[in-house]
Amino acid sequence: MLAQSNMSKGYITKKLLASDFDDGMIQDAMAIILFPSRSDADFDALARSHCLFWARQQFSDPFCQALESQNRELIKNISKLHQRLMFFIEDYLTKATAVFPPREYLCLPSRMEHHLRFKGQAVCSRFNAANLTSLERKRLLRAFLRCQLKYMMKSDIRKLCEESLYRHSGQKFQQWDLQAILCVDEYLKTLYAAMFAQCSNSWLPDIVQGKGSTSSHSPDLLYPDSLCVDPEAYAYDMGCGSYIASRLAYREFDLVTILLRSTEAGKPGRDRLKEWFKNLHQIYDSRRESSHYLIGHYHSIGRVSEGSENGPGMYRILRSRIIPNYMTLTTTYLQRAWVFLDDARFYPSPSSVASPHFPTEDEALEERYQTMKKDEDYWDHPWRARARHRSQKWHNEKSPEKTKVEDDQDSELEKESSLWTDEHQVWKMISMGLTPGDTFGHLGRAWAGSAPLSPKPFMLQLMLILVAPVFISATIYVNLGRLKEALLGHQRRKCSPTSIFILTDIIAFCTQIGGSLVQVIANPKIMEIGGHVVLGGLLFQLFVLVVYFALVMRFQRATQRETIYLQHWRRYVWTLIISVIAIWVRNLVRAAEFAEGWYGFVNQHEAMMYIFDSFLMFSVMFAYAVFHPGQLIEAGGKMPKNRQRINSEQVVMGPFGDIA
Q1: What angle do CA 249, 388, 395 make, to 5 degrees?
Q2: What pLDDT is stored for residue 426 in this prediction?
Q3: Helix (H) or strand (E) holding 134
Q4: How far apart are CA 259 and CA 37, in angstroms?
Q5: 3-class DSSP state for residue 202?
Q6: Which of 47, 473, 478, 639 has the most CB atoms around it within 10 Å of its CB?
Q7: Which residues does the annotated region (Disordered) include (predicted)?
Q8: Residue 445's pLDDT band (boundaries 50, 70, 90)?
Q9: Residue 322 and residue 135: Cα distance in Å, rounded?
């Protein structure tokens, strides 16, 4: 009787699964359940052979064979895989079709019940996949299967099987197939965003009450948090660095399943998980997983391609709306499952008082503009303003029930704001160091003309003119980090490349000031040593400036790609670029001067000093006097009323790493 029952159960399972799998999906499922164990001694060779076997589509179909013991075990494992992926598919659709997706995306699914929870609080019921059509189920399951298999492959194997990863059942991917893969990639990252949020002091917004409002009491989430969830933002809120969600996304759905158990274990479980994330961040801090080749195809989102007219219903409706490579808009669409469904029956009904579920470019720009008007600090420090609005503590402080504001010593946010202001004043003063340095240096040079044998004017002009640009170098090193926060909304890190560049600037200052001091000693050998020390400092600074210039250009491209790039901002970015070039050219000429010695071409032609030192440095001073980045802070959010219309060619997809 038991054997007959097992046989019947296996037969029913086989028939049910067969309706959800086509030939290509069966090959993907077989490749997943038969994937070699990482504990095997020769795992790399076995995995390579296994993936090549999959690429040739040579796995046998267990649904076409008799229910023997081995075949029954395969079907059982496929059934487990199917259940696990359908669990995540239901969670994905719950969030994608919610009235306010950024709220649901902070919640996590539970295997113990049919609800999504936020820190133990039941928030909403999970979507029922039984309501999907057969084609919709297959689209979703196919994308989740392919992503699971992709995550299991190492990068070298992914490159080896690249052509096969772009095919299904022997047919080349259509455009919507690729977007489906990107949707699943984005969803997996948002699962970690929810974990970060629940392990920190994050605020769960209320249901949308009206257009532009995410809460029954103001203020609420700010752009772009009001449209989509940024996993890296919540990682920063928790105290971790960038790209941790992207790195973890390469660890398959199996790791997510394990970590979900910790989130269901109450606050102690979440505290342990938070500690694990922080330790993991320290391990990963020095190395970053290379981006998968599929990431480059973000650029094709929304573009018309062959076969696009045959895609799913929602894809055909929305593909003409989306702006290629506009990061906020594309991320919003990916998080709202824009390519899977036949129609809009699961999405919130359009309403005159509710924000559109799939915003257009103009609506996204308007959302950003309304955010700037809503929060004064957003214009100057968007990352910090957004972080405050995500904080439960800040919302508690601003709640209507609160009768008085706490003192500064009791408010960490006010302390941070005060610290920022102090840093800004120091930042402005550093740049002023160049003006008296060069000015008094040239006064010393004029003095030396009337007293050529006196060591004092010689020492004055040599030291001040030589080391004054070091101060402006320190300023531009700091400027990059501040501009990055203002334009890209990235948070500063405690140990950032900016700190390293400042350290190199201190080294350059010490070598140049030390070498120039011994130049006034009337000992040719010591003077020669001093000249070599100064030359070493200049060459070192030249190398550092080359590295820094590469980061500045990367930042400039990122600014064009990831921001609504208004003309109002561009001048400050180009001031930074031109300043770096001017200082580098100046240092190159001064290095040639010390390399040639006292009787070289540069020393024998005083015009070289005025053209390639004085003129360049005073030009930098003038540029910073007119376009000082401090004006971005002092502007106080004065956004032009007539916002520029952004050409879609200017908005290009990220993501980009930390620059400073």
Answers
A1: 115
A2: 44
A3: helix 134-152
A4: 20
A5: strand
A6: 473
A7: 390-417
A8: low
A9: 24
What is residue 210's DSSP assignment? B
Q: Would you state the pLDDT for residue 345? A: 94
What does the CA dihedral 321, 322, 324, 328 come to, rounded to 10 degrees? 150
| Strands (E) located in 249-379 | none
Whether omega for the bond prior to residue 224 falls within 30 degrees of 0, making it cis, is yes
Give the distance between the most distant pair of CA atoms in the chain.
115
Residue 170's SS3 state is: coil
**Distance in angstroms (rounded) separating the CA atoms of residues 576 and 486:** 14
Which tens digits make up the pLDDT trace of 107-141?
999 887 899 999 989 999 999 999 999 999 999 99
pLDDT for the residue numbered 431: 47
Among residues 262, 456, 382, the alpha carbon closest in space to that of 632 is found at: 382
Question: Crossing angle of helices 175-198/69-96, nearest 10°?
Answer: 80
Neighbours of 523 (CB within 10 A): 10
Q: Omega into 36 within 30° of 0, i.e. cis? A: no
Residue pair 158/292 in contact (Cβ under 8 Å)? The answer is yes
- What is the three-class DSSP state of 213? strand
pLDDT score recorded for residue 647: 34
Amino acid letter, 399 = S
Whether residue 524 has a cis bond before it, omega within 30° of 0 = no
- Read off the tokens for 74: 């395969």
Got the DSSP string for 44-94? HHHHHHHHHHHHTT----GGGS---HHHHHHHHHHHHHHHHHHHHHHHHHH
Q: How far, in Å, CA of 97 to CA of 78, rounded?
A: 28
| Lookup: tokens for 255 | 């790791």
Residue 263, judged by CB atoms within 10 A of its CB (0-12, 13-18, 19+), counts as: buried
Task: Choose among 328, 359, 357: nearest CA to 95.
Answer: 357
Q: For the chain, how big is the Rg over CA atoms in Å?
A: 30
Instruction: Indicate the residue type of 316.
Output: R
Give me the residues paired with residue 117 across strands.
108, 122
Question: Which is nearest to 111 in space by CA: 257, 253, 251?
Answer: 257
Instruction: Give one word for 211, left, alpha or beta, with left for phi > 0 and alpha for psi -120 to 50.
Output: beta
pLDDT at 611: 79
Higher-pLDDT residue of 402 and 530 is 530
String of DSSP letters for 237-249: HHT--TTHHHHHG
| CA 234 to mean position of chain CA atoms | 11
- How many Cβ atoms are within 10 Å of 621's Cβ, its own excluded? 19
Token pair belonging to 274: 């938070």
468 and 441 Cβ atoms separated by less than 8 Å: yes
Residue 310 has φ and ψ, to the nearest 5°, of -100, 5
What is the spatial distance between Cα 38 and Cα 28, in angstroms, rounded to a whole number? Answer: 19
Q: Which residues of 417-445 are buried (b: 16+ CB within 10 A; e: fewer)?
A: eeebeeebeebbebbebbbebbebbbebb
Helix locations, 433-495, DSSP H: 434-450, 455-488
With beta carbons less than 8 A apart as the criterion, state whether 209 and 215 touch: yes
H or E segment at 412?
helix 412-432
Burial zone of 451 (CB within 10 Å; 0-12 exposed, 13-18 middle, 19+ buried): exposed
